[in-house]
Amino acid sequence: MIQRRTLFIIFLILALCACCLPAGATLPSYSFRGSVIGVSESDNTVTILATHKWGCVYDGRENPCSWIPMTPTMLTGTVPDPVVFDHLGKGSSVMAGSIGTQGERWISIGVLTPLYSSEPLHATDLFGELGLLRALLVAGYTLDVETQPDCGDCSGAVCTAQATNVTISRNDAEVWSGTLLPGEEAVYTDPADGSGLSVIFVSGQASANLCPDTPPGMSGIQPTSVFVVHATGSGPGPTPTRTPISPGVLSVISVPSGATILLDGDDKGQTPGTISGIEPGMHRLVLAKDGYAPYERNVTITAGRPTVVTATLAPVFGSLRIQSSPSGASVFLDGEPAGTTPLVARDLEPGEHAVSLSKMGYVTVNRTATVVAGQEKFLFVTLPKKGDGSEKIGAFISALEREGFIVQEGKFELFDVLAMYDAQIIPSCYGNNPSTPYLTYKLPGYPGLAQGGRVSDAPIRPDNKGLWLDYFMEPDEAIVFVGTTPPEVKYFSYRSYIGTRWFDELGDYARIFASLGDTVNNYRIRTGSIPGQVSSGPYQKPVMIITTGDRGTNELVRKAALRAGYSTNMMNDDIIPSGLIRMGLANTSDTIAFIHRLAFFANETLGMEYMNSTPGRVFRITPNITHTQQPYGVPHLLVRGTGDAHELDFLDDQETLREAIIARHGDGMVVSGNKTDIWVLEGFDSLQRETDALGDNRDALYLRNGDYLLGDDDFLIVYGVNHQATGKVLYTNIAVYGTEALNGVVAVTDADIAGSANSYLPGNPNADLFYVWKFARHCNGEAGCTEVPCCCGGLGIPETVPVRIAFRTYVEEETGIGPVCNEILYDQAIYFSPA
Q1: Which residues contact 783 (CB under 8 A, 6 or more apart)?
Q2: Residue 53, Cβ density class (10 Å: 0-12 exposed, 13-18 middle, ≥19 buried)
Q3: What CA–CA distance (Å, rounded) separates 307 from 305?
Q4: What per-residue confidence (pLDDT) applies to 235?
Q5: Which of 159-173, 182-196, 244-258 has the lowest mean pLDDT?
């Protein structure tokens, strides 16, 4: 927002605009008129007896804003500049302005002529921020100023002003204009009657919204500046004339720098640059730089004064950084060779570009990359080794079509829960686990069906338009994933879910997000092999996941896969119990979703490559011929529990640990807390209750403790047995959620908390099996503490929103699924708040 303050009718416009600003954008401003009753140079204060207040009455009159009488009120404030004391004393008529409070700090003061003068209550001297000084200047003068930001010196929505453009007018005729740097002065004298105006730009601020990299719509405290203005003269004279002409100076700054400066067609060097000896008047300025659109404007040069132009150049090209795993792949860009990975392709026109990567022994991968002007986009591609099954995709699709199926390809991508919540695509973060990522299917709708589902990430991923994260599905359809399992991780799984369900009594749908059986996880997955591969375990191996509610469809998909050359050893069934849910294409049908969970890569680099690449291809398979349906029943569930409840032997030690925590942290604090209980129900349980299962997983047990308001001085301490250290489960984590959005913002794992209770249980032989961890708004470097952010949408929890602690325990090795609750010693939490 450029600061424009004209001491004339502009003030009225600003007053009207201020009423329309959002409450969070500015602080309230006040303008008073009265007389000085106290001056203290030692305290830097002036006290006025305010008799009038500037206000607006919207009753249809032409000028709704004016000085409105008020009950005489004594107001004291500091002055904007000490020079004020040279121009006023007790009894002086003044106007004064403040922001945020009435008085306390005068950001502007103006000295007024007496009521008995020829121009009563006109301003002769102005100090500080000009926008709140409502009275007109004497002798018909008006002043217009525009501050320009130093974009390298900003704080929030406000930047330091590097210069100000100034225009002096008299009787509506411009008599002087130019640019002032901080500390500079402009003086105009009318030769006809000797009246004049001087203005000093002491210092100032400007809006950060003028800077090129500022997010649109940034709001905050309004910028203010300090000017010193003095007007002389007793009345309007004849039409003024300009002062004698002398050369002007032009300073040109561009973002980015290095642009060629062309003034009236002549090359004047590069930005940043200063050109002197310019004849006053209008000149044509052009800035040119490779990769950016020319910047063109008319600029007015003022005699004897510097003019500053700051230009942001608009890029016309973008670049694309391409990396691959493995590196050294040959890259073809729009059919032309571009080099080998890693590489950066520059000077690309905005829009879509075809990228092809190939390497000996690997399957060629083709991608479409979108280039944006002025930005460097990133494309990472994992090249599948030949032999992992990807080279058989074409044969597989042909075989499916021969079996009477329509085949549509979708995407297998990151499920960015927090970004979708912040974009208001989904109403909740579903209790996301902040420690682990999720991948999901994004599928086209049923052939010919416009509304293929209820949730799409197309608003934040426009290239996914027409793809759905949850989808309507007929009982005899199938979804088939063909790809590779992830690199070695502690845990991974694949599972389909019911997404949403229609409720007639609500006239709307609601989320159920319940699992439809046991997962296909790294304990029981069937994988193929790659010739020459020596990695152990079910990692980086060929895999096929067949999701369907129909046994006959499953058999036909397997038949087509065998015909294409895939092994039955890599085929896994993800059964949808179609009799348990309402499959179909009607708006009242249930939707289906799919989640691929991963936890803790052994090699983070390989893990990132897997997440950022395309680890497989997913297809929607729809019969185009009628066959007798063979719906699956509800699948057999694995039994939780082993009968080993040895953790409960540590209950006394846990109580001792609680007492030790309170003894160390409870001084001067109010200590309280709630008991931990079960948080998330299993999918089949939630289906019967028709409640939200939050994307449950039978490979885990979910406990919770809460809810607590976490202010600046409050903190939570969680404690209990480290279930991984006791040998009960594969891994555990503890996460903090906001109760409104169920957004997981921070978490710690069994590796983080290992040994953290030793100092609380000295001499206790079981101390290594316990943990203690603190969650607070500010940890100040304290070990064993994690800060809970309160900003940034789904990434934080405001102090007004209660927090909840969630405890996850994943996979009992003996059973391959999550533990049963009565064999686990529940983790607990203690809440501390200042007494």
Answers
A1: none
A2: middle
A3: 7
A4: 45
A5: 244-258
> Could you tell me the CA-to-CA distances from 361 to 354, 437, 596, 734 in Å, in that order?
22, 30, 28, 43
Q: Which residue has the tokens 């209660």?
A: 802
Provide φ and ψ at 674, rounded to 5°: -110, 160
How many contiguous H segments (helices) and E segments (strands) does the chain have? 8, 52
Edge-first strand order for the sheet with 260-263 is 266-270, 260-263, 281-288, 295-301
**Tell me, what's the pLDDT at 364?**
80
pLDDT at residue number 243: 42
Q: How many CB atoms lie within 10 A of CB 549?
A: 27
Chain position carrying tokens 């690997």? 362
Burial string for 357-393 (b: 16+ CB within 10 Å, else e) reads: bebeebbbbeeebebebbeebebbbbbbbebbbbbbb
pLDDT at 174 over 50: yes
Backbone angles phi, psi at 767, to 5 degrees: -55, -35
Task: Provide mean pLDDT across the span 49-68.
Answer: 81
For residues 751-757, give the mean pLDDT. 96
Residue type, 425: I
Residue 796 β-bridge partners? none
Q: What are phi and psi of 393, to 5 degrees?
A: -60, -45
By the 8 A CB rule, do 743 and 797 touch? yes
pLDDT at residue 723, as a whole number: 97
The whole-number pLDDT of residue 256 equals 87
Torsion of CA 145, 150, 151, 156, to 10 degrees: -70
Q: Cβ contacts of residue 326 below 8 Å, gap of 6+?
A: 359, 362, 383
Band of pLDDT at residue 386, cut at 50, 70 and 90: low
Question: Residues 6 or more apart from 639 whose CB is under 8 A from it?
Answer: 815
At 138-148, the pLDDT tens digits run 999 999 999 98
Q: Does this model's pTM top 0.85?
A: no
Query: Would you call 657 helix, strand, or coil by DSSP?
Result: helix
User: Residue 255 — left, alpha, or beta (φ > 0 → left; ψ -120 to 50 → alpha)?
Assistant: beta
Query: What's the token pair of residue 238?
Result: 């004849």
φ, ψ at 396 (rounded to 5°): -65, -45
Q: Which residues pair with 354 in a beta bridge?
A: 368
Going by the DSSP 8-state scheme, the letter that residue 550 receives in this structure is B
Residues 6+ apart with CB under 8 A from 343: 321, 322, 331
By the 8 A CB rule, do 723 and 750 touch? yes
Buried b (16+ CB within 10 A) or exposed e, 396-412: bbebbeebebebbebbb
Strands of the sheet containing 478-484, edge to edge, are: 405-409, 616-623, 478-484, 542-548, 571-575
- Selection from 616, 607, 528 nearest residue 568 by Cα: 528
Q: What is the pLDDT of residues 673-708, one digit of tens each?
A: 999 999 999 999 999 999 999 999 999 999 999 999
- Distance separating alpha carbons of residues 527 and 543, to the nearest angstrom: 5
What pLDDT, on a 0 to 100 scale, did the predictor assign at position 23? 37
Give me the phi and psi of 788, to 5 degrees please. -105, 110
pLDDT in tens, 187-224: 888 888 888 999 999 888 988 888 877 776 556 678 89
For 624-742, strand residue ranges (E) read 669-672, 677-678, 700-708, 715-721, 731-738
> Amino acid identity, residue 608?
M
Q: Which of 108, 41, 98 is nearest to 75 (CA)?
A: 98
